[in-house]
Every structure is written in C-alpha cells, then in structure tokens.
Amino acid sequence: MTNKNESITRQEDDFAQWYTDVCLKAELMDYSSVKGFIIYRPYGYAIWENIQKYLDEKFKYVGVENVYLPLVIPTSLFQKEKDHVVGFAPETLVATKGGKNDLDDPLIVRPTSETLFCDHYAKIIKSYRDLPKRYNQWCSVVRWEKTTRPFLRGSEFLWQEGHTMYETAEEARKDALRMLEIYDAAGRDLLAIPFVKGIKTEKEKFAGAVETYSIEALMPDGKALQSGTTHYFGDGFAKAFGIQFLGRDNKLETPHQTSWGVSTRLLGAIIMVHGDDNGLVLPPHVAPIQVVIIPVQQNKPEVMKKAREYYEFLKAAGIRVKLDDSDHTPGWKYSEYEMKGVPLRLEVGPRDISNGVAVIAKRNDGEKFIVKETDVLLEVNRLLEVIHKEMYQKAFRYLLDHTTEAHSIEELGQILDRGGYAKVMWCGDQECENKVKELYQATARCMPFDQNPFDEKCLICGKKAEKVVFFARAY
Questions:
Q1: Per the CATH hierarchy, to which homologous superfamily does domain 15-274 belong?
Q2: According to CATH, where is 3.30.930.10 located in the chain?
Q3: pLDDT tens-digit readout, 46-63
Q4: Per the confidence metrics, is the pTM higher than 0.85?
Q5: Span 277-293, pLDDT tens digits
C-alpha cells in the first residue's frame, strides 16, 4: 500500500466527509444544479450497470419480465390507496402545469409505481389463466428529501421495482421471500456484503403492505443501512383498484400482490463497507476495472509491447482490464487506482520482462506477488476470487463483532453508542419501539428470520417477550 492519500479525509477524523471525498475524488458522481439530484459519472454508473446485469439475469431466470411504465401518476389515481398516500404524500414532486395550461388532475412524479402497475393490471388480468404476472422495471424515482447524501438518500435515485400478482397469498409470500434471497445472494456473491435478513415491524413496514422483508447492512461507523426490501401486499391494493379475475371455480376473486426493489443505495453500501483511508476498495465482481496495468519506464519500447500483450490476452479472457499509458508517473498511477479501488494492479518494468515475470498487487491489503508471465491469467483469476472471499469475511467478522445481546435498557444504550446491532427481546408493542427511538435515536431494523430467544421478558417494559428484534441507528 502506498502512503496515505492526502486528498481524502481520514475515516476516524470525519467519516461523513471521508465518504463525500471518496464519492467525488474517485469520480463516482458530481453534484447537479438541483439539490438532491446527482450526476452519475461513468465510473459510478458502471458499478450500477454491473449490479443491474447480475440482478437482471437472476430475475429473468425465475421468470420475471421487464417493462417500463410512465414517469408520472395522475393525483386521482395515486389517491386510490389511502395508506400509500399517507406514506408518500409528503415526499412527492407534483406538476401542476402542462405547457401554459393548469392541469385539472396534477401529475405526481413517481415516488414508486404500485398505483401505475395496479391500474395496468386491472386492465389486463381477467382470468386465473392471466396469472401470475411478474413484471419489473429499471427506472428512477423522485422523493423530495430534506436531507440528502450521494447514493444513500437522494431526491432522485435509480432502482429496480418488481410488481407481481398471484392467485393465492401463499404464492405471493413465496415470491417476496424468493426475491429477498436473490438480494441476499447479490450481497454474498457480488458485493461481498453480508446482510441481516428479516421482517420489518408494523411501524417500519412499507406504506400499504401487510408484511415487509428487508436486508440490512452494517456500516463501519456502526450504523445500519437498509439495502433492499420485498413486500407482501395481500389483496389491499388489488381491491382498491378493482382488480378481479375469474377463478378456477368460475367465481370472481382478488389477486395477491408483491413488490420488491433495490437501488443505487447499494453503491453507498459498497463505498462504506469496504473503503479505507486511500479511497474505494471494490469487490472484484462489481468493479468496472478489475485489473489495471501500469507500465514502469514506459518510454522503453519493450515495456509497452509487453504491457499491450498482457492487456490483449486479459481482455480476451473476459477480464475487465485497463492499460494506463498516460504520461503520469507510476507513483501517481498507483495512488489514482488505489483511490478508485481497482482490485489488482499489474506492474510491467524492464527488469520484470528480462526475468520473465510480472508483479501483481492486491488493493484490499497491498500484498504483492511475483508471478511468471505465463501464469499471469491464472493468478489474476485466482486472486480476484481470493480478494472477494477476504473482503466478504472481513465484513462478516465486523458484523458478528458488532451484534450484541442487550439485557438491560442501559446496556442497550451502551451498545448503540459503540455502534452496531443491539439484539433485543421485545413484546411487540409499538410503544416500546417508540421508547427506544426516543431514548437513543435508534429504530427497529428487522426481526431476523433466525429467531433465537435469549430472555422471556421484553427489555423495555418487562412484559412477555414475543420476538427478537435488531435495533440500530441507521442511515
């Protein structure tokens, strides 16, 4: 590892400023002229494209079809589902004029698209033969946030939103849990991020949902980040929008609905979970550049010839590789690609060529390897897998080390002050949930699926405990 990058604030000095520095210096994004609306620069957008590609393949494998619905929702349509309106009305951006004319029915820029999908499904679902409907769209949504931070919370963000209709509640619940498993696998296999999976409390669930399931990631500052959600809606939305189908017994029935989504918030998770004081540390499977080739003494023809040879055969083998033949010094390049989090650096110099070797350096820990030039591809593929496993295990150890049972209200406060998840036995009463927020500014992240009770009484009120719940401060 080279010396500390002085253009980036140290995490321990100011974690929030470190995060902003990395977003800007690594050229992931830039600010636009409208607060909360960011510009996704090529390097940042390429990370999102790799996430998109992975998920899109998984969705299609289980039978999901991509569609695209309009950007705007008539206010009259949006108001059909009352709980939904209460949940989203404060965040909506509303267009009241079209050209020079006032609109009789103002248009809401979509904060999410349940209402549009329901309106469409009401027109095309007539029989049980039309089910299931399993649609997804890749798009942006707008939520007028007061406090914004790149990728983590924006007035506009990119995401995918899946919306499905099923004959039965059992099928719909199964779908919501299946999609959650796909998100969890993306964390493990693509992002090198371990998630806590579980069901949201009544207070924290999605507006209009019967049940909300979530994946939660833990950041290095001890805060949780909700990284994806899936929802079982029951038949509430379908009834509000008059969606009915002729069942197998020739009686009219109401379908059961789910929705599910992840967003560019995942970029924020990658930055925070893996980054260090020199900038990004990108998991190999999501990195736009997996290997950067740095020529040393590139004025020598044999150096550039060999560097180009490496570039061509790595590229042909499917490795995302870049050859930096700019006139910057090798030291500048080392620092630049460390900041950009490129997993592997391949150094090519005259001495290496004469010895028939190359030098490969890992970004995640700075370890260097001298490998035979005939083994470069083999070692690159091996090290990319090694790096992914090391990054996942590091994040997993942090999660385990920062998940602690709380046995008293005082201990709960101490755990939250240290940072991390506090496992709490809870009676299920929202008053107790509110009390934790009032005392410690922490929220119930989820009730994990693997419930392992460790006390009989609710930590907050002393009544009979019903559930294990994870509390944390959160983004």
A1: Bira Bifunctional Protein; Domain 2 (3.30.930.10)
A2: 15-274
A3: 999 999 999 999 999 999
A4: yes
A5: 999 999 999 999 999 99
Q: Where, residue-wise, is CATH 3.40.50.800 in the chain?
A: 291-387
- Tokens representing residue 359 in the block: 């030098």
CATH label, 403-472, candidates 3.30.428.10, 3.30.110.30, 3.30.1490.20, 1.10.1330.10: 3.30.110.30
Alpha-carbon distance of 19 to 14, in angstroms, equals: 9
CA angle 304, 309, 310 (to 5 degrees): 100
- CATH number for the region 291-387 comes to 3.40.50.800
Task: Please write the tens of the pLDDT for every residue from 334-346.
Answer: 999 999 999 999 9
> In which residue ranges of the chain is CATH 3.30.110.30 found?
403-472
Q: What is the distance, to the nearest Å, from the Cα of residue 156 to the centroid of all Cα atoms in its chain?
A: 15
